[in-house]
Amino acid sequence: MDAWASDFESWADCDTVCFHLFDRTPHAWSRERAWSRARAQFKKRAAFALLWGLTVHDRAAPDRAFLDSLRLVEAGSLDERELVKKAVDMALRAVGKRNETLRRAAVELARRLARSSERSQAWIGRSALRELAGRRS
């Protein structure tokens, strides 16, 4: 998984592999954490594409795993690169769509981000709130 993630050259390759293969492996959660600290753009994007995929495909995952991942989302929200920023936004929205408990946590984070003076955080927060603030699972 690490070798493939290091070779990603586009958002489409990254997202497709994360959504249709990596998110179904027993290593998905550990890669999401590790890659969220990556410097390389597509490897970092892969962390959040993987989280997004896990919200759909890991039906057995406890809420705690997703709540813990919100710390990674918050840290990743400082990355100004467009392709990373969009993946962080999609991961936050996907976590919030999983159930009501996670929606509340995602909305709380999105509100905090929306108030940030950091441009990427504010953009992610506002984007996620548009979708999650009025939604009920």
Summarize this, please?
The chain has 137 residues and is mostly helical.
Question: Could you name the CATH class?
Answer: Mainly Alpha
Number of strands: 0
Indicate the percent of residues in helices: over 70%
CATH fold group = Serine Threonine Protein Phosphatase 5, Tetratricopeptide repeat
Task: Quickly give the structural class.
Answer: mainly alpha
Q: How do the SSEs run, as a string of H and E?
A: HHHHHHHH
**Mean pLDDT reading:** 96
Low-confidence stretches: none
Between the first and last Cα atoms, what is the distance in angstroms? 33 Å
Q: How many helices does DSSP assign?
A: 8
What summary fits the major beta sheet? none
How many domains is the backbone divided into?
A: 1
Q: How big a fraction of the residues is strand?
A: under 5%
CATH architecture: Alpha Horseshoe
- If you compute it from the alpha carbons, what radius of gyration comes out, rounded to the nearest whole angstrom? 14 Å
Feature tags:
137 residues, mainly alpha, Serine Threonine Protein Phosphatase 5, Tetratricopeptide repeat
Description:
The chain has a single domain, classed as Serine Threonine Protein Phosphatase 5, Tetratricopeptide repeat, CATH 1.25.40. The protein is built from eight helices and no strands. It has helices at 2-7, 11-20, 28-35, 41-57, 63-76, 82-98, 100-114, 119-132. The protein is globular. The mean pLDDT is 96.
